[in-house]
Amino acid sequence: RLQTSGSERLNVRQSNPRVVVRSALSQVPEKPLGLYDPSFDKDSCGVGFVAELSGESSRKTVTDAVEMLVRMSHRGACGCETNTGDGAGILVALPHEFYREVAKNEGFELPQPGEYAVGMFFLPTAEKRRAHSKNVFTKVAESLGHTVLGWRSVPTDNSGLGNSALQTEPVIEQLFLTPNPRSKANFEQ
Protein backbone atom coordinates (compact mmCIF):
# COMPACT_ATOMS: atom_id res chain seq x y z
CA ARG A 1 0.00 0.00 0.00
CA LEU A 2 1.30 3.39 -0.99
CA GLN A 3 -0.37 6.58 0.18
CA THR A 4 0.15 9.58 -2.09
CA SER A 5 -1.73 12.88 -2.17
CA GLY A 6 -5.06 11.63 -0.84
CA SER A 7 -5.09 8.50 -2.98
CA GLU A 8 -4.32 4.95 -2.05
CA ARG A 9 -2.46 2.66 -4.44
CA LEU A 10 -3.05 -1.05 -3.93
CA ASN A 11 -0.94 -3.70 -5.60
CA VAL A 12 -3.22 -6.67 -5.98
CA ARG A 13 -1.29 -9.93 -6.34
CA GLN A 14 -3.23 -12.50 -8.25
CA SER A 15 -2.54 -14.64 -11.29
CA ASN A 16 -3.22 -11.47 -13.28
CA PRO A 17 -1.54 -8.63 -11.33
CA ARG A 18 -3.21 -5.22 -11.50
CA VAL A 19 -3.00 -1.88 -9.78
CA VAL A 20 -6.10 -0.28 -8.32
CA VAL A 21 -6.07 3.43 -7.45
CA ARG A 22 -8.84 4.67 -5.20
CA SER A 23 -9.27 8.29 -4.22
CA ALA A 24 -9.77 8.90 -0.51
CA LEU A 25 -12.41 11.44 -1.52
CA SER A 26 -14.61 8.93 -3.31
CA GLN A 27 -14.30 5.79 -1.23
CA VAL A 28 -17.45 4.01 -0.25
CA PRO A 29 -17.48 1.59 2.66
CA GLU A 30 -17.16 -2.03 1.54
CA LYS A 31 -19.24 -3.29 4.49
CA PRO A 32 -22.53 -1.99 5.90
CA LEU A 33 -21.96 1.15 7.95
CA GLY A 34 -24.82 2.84 9.79
CA LEU A 35 -27.75 3.07 7.38
CA TYR A 36 -25.50 2.46 4.37
CA ASP A 37 -25.44 -1.02 2.86
CA PRO A 38 -23.31 -1.47 -0.30
CA SER A 39 -25.38 -4.48 -1.39
CA PHE A 40 -28.07 -2.00 -2.52
CA ASP A 41 -25.70 -0.09 -4.82
CA LYS A 42 -26.12 -0.64 -8.53
CA ASP A 43 -23.69 0.49 -11.19
CA SER A 44 -25.51 0.72 -14.49
CA CYS A 45 -25.80 4.40 -15.34
CA GLY A 46 -23.69 6.07 -17.99
CA VAL A 47 -22.32 9.52 -18.55
CA GLY A 48 -20.69 10.84 -21.70
CA PHE A 49 -19.00 14.13 -22.45
CA VAL A 50 -18.71 15.85 -25.82
CA ALA A 51 -17.19 19.32 -25.95
CA GLU A 52 -15.84 21.82 -28.45
CA LEU A 53 -12.54 22.92 -26.92
CA SER A 54 -12.35 26.11 -28.97
CA GLY A 55 -15.44 27.45 -27.20
CA GLU A 56 -17.19 28.05 -30.53
CA SER A 57 -20.78 26.92 -30.96
CA SER A 58 -21.03 23.92 -33.24
CA ARG A 59 -23.96 21.93 -34.57
CA LYS A 60 -21.58 18.95 -34.82
CA THR A 61 -21.12 19.00 -31.03
CA VAL A 62 -24.88 18.68 -30.55
CA THR A 63 -25.13 15.97 -33.22
CA ASP A 64 -22.28 14.04 -31.58
CA ALA A 65 -23.93 14.40 -28.15
CA VAL A 66 -27.24 13.05 -29.47
CA GLU A 67 -25.38 10.14 -31.10
CA MET A 68 -23.67 9.43 -27.76
CA LEU A 69 -27.10 9.31 -26.06
CA VAL A 70 -28.38 6.87 -28.68
CA ARG A 71 -25.35 4.63 -28.23
CA MET A 72 -25.81 4.63 -24.45
CA SER A 73 -29.54 3.85 -24.42
CA HIS A 74 -28.72 0.41 -23.01
CA ARG A 75 -27.36 2.16 -19.87
CA GLY A 76 -30.53 4.09 -19.02
CA ALA A 77 -33.34 3.04 -16.73
CA CYS A 78 -36.60 2.09 -18.36
CA GLY A 79 -39.87 0.66 -17.15
CA CYS A 80 -42.07 -2.07 -18.54
CA GLU A 81 -43.50 0.42 -21.03
CA THR A 82 -41.08 0.99 -23.88
CA ASN A 83 -41.93 4.71 -23.86
CA THR A 84 -41.42 5.38 -20.14
CA GLY A 85 -38.00 5.76 -18.57
CA ASP A 86 -35.78 8.08 -16.55
CA GLY A 87 -34.96 10.25 -19.53
CA ALA A 88 -31.69 11.64 -20.75
CA GLY A 89 -30.50 14.89 -22.19
CA ILE A 90 -27.67 17.18 -23.13
CA LEU A 91 -26.41 20.38 -21.54
CA VAL A 92 -25.59 23.21 -23.93
CA ALA A 93 -24.65 26.86 -23.55
CA LEU A 94 -27.52 29.32 -23.28
CA PRO A 95 -28.80 30.08 -26.79
CA HIS A 96 -28.83 33.86 -26.27
CA GLU A 97 -30.28 34.86 -29.67
CA PHE A 98 -33.13 32.38 -29.26
CA TYR A 99 -33.83 33.46 -25.67
CA ARG A 100 -33.72 37.13 -26.67
CA GLU A 101 -36.60 36.49 -29.10
CA VAL A 102 -38.47 34.39 -26.55
CA ALA A 103 -38.11 37.12 -23.92
CA LYS A 104 -39.36 39.76 -26.35
CA ASN A 105 -42.44 37.62 -27.05
CA GLU A 106 -43.01 37.25 -23.29
CA GLY A 107 -42.76 41.02 -22.75
CA PHE A 108 -39.33 41.46 -21.17
CA GLU A 109 -35.81 42.18 -22.36
CA LEU A 110 -32.68 40.18 -21.66
CA PRO A 111 -29.32 41.71 -20.77
CA GLN A 112 -26.08 40.65 -22.47
CA PRO A 113 -24.95 37.00 -22.41
CA GLY A 114 -23.45 36.07 -19.05
CA GLU A 115 -25.54 38.69 -17.25
CA TYR A 116 -28.58 36.48 -16.64
CA ALA A 117 -29.54 32.92 -15.77
CA VAL A 118 -32.29 30.60 -16.92
CA GLY A 119 -33.80 28.11 -14.49
CA MET A 120 -35.81 25.05 -15.53
CA PHE A 121 -38.78 24.41 -13.25
CA PHE A 122 -40.88 21.25 -13.12
CA LEU A 123 -44.09 22.56 -11.60
CA PRO A 124 -47.37 21.10 -10.33
CA THR A 125 -50.19 20.74 -12.85
CA ALA A 126 -52.75 22.30 -10.48
CA GLU A 127 -52.85 26.03 -11.30
CA LYS A 128 -53.05 27.24 -7.67
CA ARG A 129 -50.11 25.09 -6.56
CA ARG A 130 -48.11 26.13 -9.63
CA ALA A 131 -48.78 29.84 -9.01
CA HIS A 132 -47.85 29.40 -5.34
CA SER A 133 -44.57 27.62 -6.23
CA LYS A 134 -43.60 30.37 -8.68
CA ASN A 135 -44.50 33.07 -6.16
CA VAL A 136 -42.38 31.45 -3.42
CA PHE A 137 -39.35 31.16 -5.70
CA THR A 138 -39.76 34.73 -6.93
CA LYS A 139 -39.89 36.03 -3.35
CA VAL A 140 -36.79 34.04 -2.35
CA ALA A 141 -34.84 35.24 -5.41
CA GLU A 142 -35.82 38.86 -4.79
CA SER A 143 -34.98 38.58 -1.08
CA LEU A 144 -31.44 37.66 -2.20
CA GLY A 145 -31.29 40.78 -4.37
CA HIS A 146 -31.82 39.05 -7.72
CA THR A 147 -34.22 40.48 -10.28
CA VAL A 148 -36.80 38.16 -11.81
CA LEU A 149 -37.25 39.20 -15.43
CA GLY A 150 -40.03 36.80 -16.31
CA TRP A 151 -41.32 33.27 -16.71
CA ARG A 152 -41.88 31.28 -19.90
CA SER A 153 -43.99 28.18 -20.52
CA VAL A 154 -41.81 25.66 -22.36
CA PRO A 155 -43.53 24.09 -25.36
CA THR A 156 -43.57 20.31 -24.96
CA ASP A 157 -44.71 17.33 -27.01
CA ASN A 158 -45.90 14.46 -24.81
CA SER A 159 -47.15 12.30 -27.68
CA GLY A 160 -44.28 9.85 -27.15
CA LEU A 161 -44.81 9.37 -23.41
CA GLY A 162 -46.19 6.18 -21.89
CA ASN A 163 -49.19 6.12 -19.56
CA SER A 164 -47.01 6.01 -16.43
CA ALA A 165 -45.09 9.10 -17.50
CA LEU A 166 -48.26 10.94 -18.52
CA GLN A 167 -49.73 10.44 -15.04
CA THR A 168 -46.87 12.35 -13.43
CA GLU A 169 -45.99 14.80 -16.22
CA PRO A 170 -45.21 18.23 -14.74
CA VAL A 171 -45.71 21.66 -16.28
CA ILE A 172 -42.29 22.88 -17.45
CA GLU A 173 -41.47 26.58 -17.23
CA GLN A 174 -38.31 28.63 -17.43
CA LEU A 175 -37.41 31.53 -15.17
CA PHE A 176 -35.12 34.33 -16.36
CA LEU A 177 -33.32 36.39 -13.74
CA THR A 178 -30.36 38.70 -13.25
CA PRO A 179 -27.97 38.51 -10.30
CA ASN A 180 -27.67 40.76 -7.32
CA PRO A 181 -24.90 43.14 -8.49
CA ARG A 182 -23.11 42.68 -5.15
CA SER A 183 -22.90 38.90 -5.43
CA LYS A 184 -22.07 37.97 -9.04
CA ALA A 185 -19.47 35.43 -7.89
CA ASN A 186 -22.05 33.70 -5.67
CA PHE A 187 -24.56 33.79 -8.53
CA GLU A 188 -22.39 31.37 -10.53
CA GLN A 189 -22.85 28.79 -7.78
What does this structure look like?
β1 and β2 (7-12) form a beta hairpin. Helix content is 27%, strand content 20%. Residues 1-14 have low confidence and may be disordered. It has helices at residues 59-71, 96-106, 127-143, 163-167, 184-188; strands spanning 2-4, 7-12, 18-23, 117-123, 147-153, 171-178. The chain has 3 domains: 2-40, no CATH class; 42-91, no CATH class; 94-188, no CATH class. It is globular, with a radius of gyration of 23 Å. The protein starts with a strand and ends with a helix. By secondary structure, the protein is of the alpha+beta class. One of its GO terms (molecular function) is 3 iron, 4 sulfur cluster binding.
